[in-house]
Please model this.
Amino acid sequence: MSMIPVENIIFDELHAPEQITDRLWELMLAEIQENARSHVWKYISLMGDDKKTVLQFFNLNLLFKPSRAELIHKLWNGFYELYCALQNKNTNPAQLKQQFLGWLTLFLTPSQAYVRGLYMPNRITPYMHALVYYKWEFLEKHKRWRKSAIQEIIEYENRSLYFNYNAHF
Model:
């Protein structure tokens, strides 16, 4: 069985960051529930820009000890910086690769003595794996940033609607 060549793969910049943000949120909520066994926690799923706002501004000190809050926030800030780098057309793919590897190292921070680490390798999602190990390569090979696959579909549908509507007049 042969692999799909990298030049034939389109990476969806919209969906992957959303999925990773969801995972970071889920991990934080799971930790809160683990630490507060007697409480029932209710929450709603976040959509679009709300996810970015949470990554940037959520006050983790309200829920965790300061050292723990700082570590989780460092992880969230690191991902937000990567998200911004993905949006920047001037980002260097080799530099992006190093930033992603640094972020993954932080994600996998092990526990030491009396300091709890972050997460185990089984918490890594396929989206995280793809961003860390392949996204920079897609950028390097394609020599450009691609639009989101969803954005390309919407633009195509908009053009089709425009021409179909105007063809009748």
